[in-house]
TrEMBL record:
Organism the protein comes from: freshwater metagenome
GO molecular function, one term: transmembrane transporter activity
Membrane-spanning parts: 44-65, 166-187, 208-226, 246-264, 276-292, 298-316, 328-352, 358-379
Name recorded for this polypeptide: Unannotated protein
Keyword Repeat listed: no
Keywords: Membrane, Transmembrane, Transmembrane helix
InterPro entries found in the cross-reference section: MFS, MFS_trans_sf
Keyword Transmembrane helix: yes
Length: 408
């Protein structure tokens, strides 16, 4: 753990971790907060699901656009406009009693969601040396996953308490605090977008981006299936409460997996680490289809989460190595536009398959989707060869200088 102690001793690391954390928790709360609000107002689970779907799909569909705005204008004013607007919309939804208004506002919230996670990631290059980036990405990934575990727990606890109307208010406060702190923090406020190389090809012509979008399509679809298959299986078996066991096991193990990845030597290239971990991810996904909602599924889910948490770290490194200059935020944003949109499709298909065939078949398709993603990376590895090398100390130093606020 010495490496993590060294990382947190660096200036601005604690600032970046703590500033955005409340906003990340707010994002973990939004889905269930909208669900409970809609269900309480209308009594319709189907409509509550539609509201969540509309919010999620709108958010992923416009991620690329919002990321491109950050890459063009910086983080200062986009965050200062989007954060208070988003928090205000949650409050408006909370005081509304109209199902139509809730659905419309949930969609608008998705369209204008502040790109908190997308904004944090490129800031690491400005505050840590190049040989600490893997460790920094591991911390950021684990912080995201921690917020993802806490958010749903807080939202559910509040919705089922005597203050059932408070989840959206709480999420709005968290967003205002975290998003506001990030927007005002000097490390974000002073960040300057990279200058695009004159005559460079457009982002959509980038071969690596197209390859990663194809890989992301398989993963998005598979994870959409998974998110529906687990609660569907538990509900069919009349053990719906065990759904929380499985997702908690996945969430906690993904935090551990991300931190473990941060300790792997930089002598291992990003692409090599990604492909090896990806294969493990595929292998541990296979047993999920043969588990039962309970300890066996929780154990298999923990293995799945551990590998997935590690993959996220290496994935960011590969993306950073292959992306064109000037796309620090938009590259990841466009990848999420594809993956998140297909994930919504996977969730819709997963509901149909779970009911018409079986949830186990859905889980088997999740493993198949991960296998297809692994195959895509294997076939197209030449497009990612920029990530299959280990930067020299001089290159790491130059990268830091190129991305420091004083020189960009």
């Amino acid at each position: 753990m010495k490496r993590y102690r060294q990382l947190f001793a660096m200036p601005n690391v604690w600032v970046l971790v703590l500033a955005a954390f409340p906003a990340r928790v707010a994002y973990g709360m939004v889905g269930l907060s909208l669900f409970f609000k809609t269900e309480q107002e209308t009594g319709s689970i189907a409509l509550a699901g539609l509201v969540i779907g509309a919010n999620s799909l709108a958010g992923s569909f416009t991620a690329g656009v919002r990321g491109s705005i950050i890459d063009k204008y910086g983080q200062k004013w986009p965050l200062r406009i989007l954060v208070p607007g988003y928090a205000a919309m949650m409050i408006l939804v909370n005081i509304s009693h109209s199902s139509t208004f809730i659905l419309v506002m949930a969609t608008i919230m998705g369209l204008s969601a502040p790109p908190i996670n997308l904004s944090v990631r490129p800031l690491w290059k400005t505050i840590v040396p190049g040989d600490f980036l893997r460790t920094a990405y591991a911390v950021d990934s684990s912080v995201m996953n921690t917020a993802g575990v806490l958010g749903p727990v807080i939202a559910t606890s509040l919705a089922l308490s005597s203050h059932s109307g408070s989840p959206l208010i709480c999420a709005a406060v968290f967003m205002a605090i975290g998003g506001g702190a990030l927007a005002l923090a000097p490390v974000s406020r002073d960040w300057k977008p990279e200058k695009k190389v004159s005559g460079a090809q457009s982002l959509w012509r980038n071969p690596a981006l197209r390859l990663m979008m194809l890989e992301g399509s398989f993963i998005g679809f598979g994870w959409g299936l998974f998110d529906v298959a687990v609660p569907a299986f538990a509900t069919i078996e009349n053990v719906a409460q065990r759904t929380a066991w499985v997702f908690a096991a996945i969430g906690v193990s993904s935090i551990v997996g991300g931190l473990f990845a941060g300790l792997i030597s930089k002598r291992t290239s990003s692409l090599s680490a990604l492909r090896k971990t990806y294969l493990i991810w595929f292998l541990v996904a296979i047993p999920m289809a043969f588990t039962y909602p309970g300890w066996s599924m929780a154990l298999a889910g923990a293995c799945l989460g551990f590998a997935g948490g590690a993959i996220q770290v290496f994935y960011w490194e590969v993306m950073e190595a292959v992306r064109p200059k000037g796309s620090a935020v938009s590259y990841m944003a466009w990848l999420w536009t594809v993956e998140g949109s297909v994930m919504s499709l996977g969730a819709a298909v997963g509901g149909v398959i779970s009911e018409a065939v079986s949830p186990q078949f859905c889980l088997a398709l999740t493993a198949l989707s991960i296998g297809c993603g692994n195959l895509v990376l294997a076939i197209g590895k030449k497009r990612l060869e920029a990530a299959d090398r280990i930067p020299s100390d001089e290159e790491n130093l130059q990268a830091i200088e190129d991305n420091s606020p004083a020189t960009t």
